[in-house]
Amino acid sequence: MKTSENTILITGAASGIGLEIARLFSQCNNKIIMVDRSAVQLESEAAKLHNTVAIPADLTNEDELSKLIQKVKLNYSEINVAILNAAAAYNHTLYTTEFDQAYAKSEINTNYLANVRLSHALEPLLSKKKEAAIVITTSGLAYVPNLEYPTYSVTKATLHSFVLGSRLQLQRNGSNVKMFELMPPLVDTPLAEALNAPKITAAEVASAFMTGFAKDELEIRVGDTENIFQLFLRSPQEALMAVNGGK
């Protein structure tokens, strides 16, 4: 995929991986449509970058999601790349009073359903372009869950399955839209602040993504995600234990 002269939608763009990816693409002569629920932070960060548009939207709100889709179709029909990166994570333990069904629903809506809805809504628009892509951010936890973030892990595993199925279906449909999956390890962002474990920076993830994107690496496993993947191939149980402290 080319890394310049694109029009790119990025969700979860006000901070973390989404913001770092927006920064890199902004430096490479692309138009960036930045989306996030944190309106003030989004607009502040977008103002620092070249050739960007900020669209505040809560992707768990059906009305706001529909308005976002319509706005993109009407005002940014030249879009050829969608990077679906928004995520929510709730630290809790299964089978305890910590479980919050309302928050679990929010994680599922943000991490999975919004991405599915956006993929289906934008694919017809993207498919009209000579070079087009959908990028979905999952996680190394798509292979094995982290017990401190069980619902988050489930949503990423489900997204991984959705990406695999989508990639095959798009090929069978004759679509020219490439389906990428970005699979970071533990990243030093607010989502992972409760975890006391080695983390890499969002900037490192963004840099690795740009390299893989340019090379058409459809599954971009960053850092320790590659190690977990290789361990999972050898022994799913060992991979599970490695992610969860060997307990």
From TrEMBL:
Q: Which SUPFAM superfamilies match?
A: NAD(P)-binding Rossmann-fold domains
Which UniProt keywords are given for this protein, alphabetically ordered?
Oxidoreductase
Query: Has UniProt tagged this entry with the keyword Oxidoreductase?
Result: yes
The record ties this protein, via Gene3D superfamilies, to: NAD(P)-binding Rossmann-like Domain (3.40.50.720)
Which Pfam family, giving just one, matches this sequence?
adh_short
Please tell me whether the keyword Oxidoreductase is annotated for this protein: yes
Q: Entry's InterPro entries?
A: NAD(P)-bd_dom_sf, SDR_fam
What protein family does this chain belong to?
Answer: Belongs to the short-chain dehydrogenases/reductases (SDR) family.
| Name of the molecule in the record | SDR family NAD(P)-dependent oxidoreductase
Q: Which organism is it from?
A: Mucilaginibacter roseus
